[in-house]
Amino acid sequence: MKFFLLAVSLIVPVHTTFADELSRDRQAILELGTLVAPPSVVASKPLSGSSNIHSLFFDALPYEGKDTKTFAWLGMPEKKERHDKVPGIILVHGGGGTAFKEWVDRWNDQGFAAMSIAVEGQTDEKDAGDKQGCIPTGWKQHTHPGPYRTGIYGDSEKPLKDQWMYHAVADTILAHSLLRSHPRVDPENIGVMGISWGGVIVSTAVGIDTRFAFGIPTYGCGSLADATNQYGKALGNNTMYRETWDPMHYLPRATMPLLWQSWPEDKHFPLDCQALSYERSPGPRLVSLRPGMGHGHGPPWTHADSYAFAKSIVKTGNPWCAQKEVAVKNGTAMASFSSSRPFENAVLVSTSDSGITGLRNWTEAPASLVNNKGVWTATAPLAPQTTAWFLNLKTGDLIASTDFQEVALTKTPRPTVPSPDESKEQKTRLLFNRIDENQDALISQKEYVVFYENLFPNLDKNHDSLLDKSEFTHEVALRFGDTDEDGALSEKEYVKIFVRQHNNLDSDNNGDISLEEWGRTRK
Are 421 and 494 in contact (CB under 8 A)? Predict the structure, then answer.
């Protein structure tokens, strides 16, 4: 019985080592930032009738042991001065998209060199009737494709370097390195913009490739495992996302200015998840939440926010405006901004609903706006039942928003912080789901043993294929497993501990541990 109690206590400490193992994957992802050499361009085709825009392929990372290439459009703005270098931007499409020539054209018109990349091994040709040679979204695959996206991190069980997000982030960084090498481009003034899934990629890439001068994640963000929509359902138990791919791991390294664009009715990427993401990055930020904007590639292209932001960064190094304060004072929402442009009006955008932000009913009400020596202060009364809000200050087609604000509901008796018992139960359930590899709500002996067997190399700090008492600190369990009594555990002896532990947890002796059995042993 003493062994049983002590052996059960192994679960949490050993799981901590599992997190250490996953941190190695994060380190491998961070090493994508070393892709600073420009990749080889293996094909180039000028657009008919145009001398400033070309399609091309550049060499990308191997996928499943095979060489891959990435399709892109590259465009340069018209020359004004022969020797002037221009700023640049990398453009990353969302789900259902590809490398868009039109997107490049629009940024060229704003004076930027632009490269729009296709991150699913596709070109920009589409044939809805062709069922072969196309990815699921209908775009044609070229002859050297990498992976395409499958669901919401649906390839998490694959080796890290064969996962789609790994290649999508690598493509973004390689495109940056290629654009930096162009003789007409200022390498210190290149940004990156991504829409929807492209926004998720950009939220990740800006924390890995810190050479970017600015970033514009649109819609897509991090912290999606805890969303209460389809992303949370898909990612809540996805350890690979939570521990490795969530942009929250990388955003603390993103010190460049970021523009976070979205709209309150977005059903895909909740505003609270986006807020957690931009609060994670330490650099200057501008938030732009446009009611009624719509979710797609077109809306961010047609509004002025991304262009004005990028121009202000390459000109001054800072966003054209910055939030100085946001608060509620005596039932009144207030915010102040410093701005290089005069604002024309302000509105309060608020809701009294709960749940997913994209499914709430949002209303707009006029806000007062006062300018005092370049500091603009907007105020508006908050209705007592308000659950969330933000203020929008407008000038022309530009919108500067406050950070998204959730209102703590004092009427509910439920504590805002889980009680110790609730927190313990949550951790218990989380670990159960991580060990339950096939997600059948049962932990077989094989699943249990394999989970902990995979941790052996991390415990073996001196790499001698043995665990001594300094590496495996559970003395009673060590004595049980150490059948040859040499004071250390071989991998075979180590596995024996978890076979025995599984048998102890399996109280009805049916070969599986149910969540109920698991919970009883953790009380």
Answer: no
Please state, in angstroms and rounded to a whole number, the distance separating the CA atoms of residues 373 and 369: 13
What integer pLDDT is reported at residue 51 of this predicted model?
66
Domains within the chain, CATH numbers bracketed = 2-18+424-521 (1.10.238.10), 35-319 (3.40.50.1820), 326-406 (2.60.40)
For the four alpha carbons of 128, 134, 140 and 146, in that order, the dihedral sign comes to positive
Question: Rounded distance, CA 82 to CA 128, Å?
Answer: 44
Can you list the positions of beta strands (E) in 93-232?
113-117, 122-126, 139-141, 185-195, 214-218
As a whole number of angstroms, the distance between CA 206 and CA 216 comes to 9
Q: Retrieve residue 107's tokens.
A: 């940024």
Q: What is the pLDDT of residue 418?
A: 54
Mean pLDDT (10-residue bins), the chain, 523 residues? 42 47 83 96 63 91 96 90 85 96 96 97 81 84 95 93 97 98 95 98 97 98 94 92 95 97 96 96 97 95 97 97 95 96 97 95 96 94 96 97 87 49 63 79 86 80 82 76 86 86 82 80 52
365 three-class SS? strand
- Among the listed residues 495, 499, 501, the one whose alpha carbon sits nearest the alpha carbon of residue 482: 495
Burial class of residue 447, CB neighbours in 10 A (0-12, 13-18, 19+)? middle
- Cα 362 from Cα 298, distance rounded (Å): 23
Which letter, b or e, does each residue of 482-499 get, where b requires 16 or more Cβ atoms within 10 Å of its Cβ? beeeeebbbeebbbbbbe
Q: Quick check: 263 and 305 in contact, CB under 8 A?
A: no
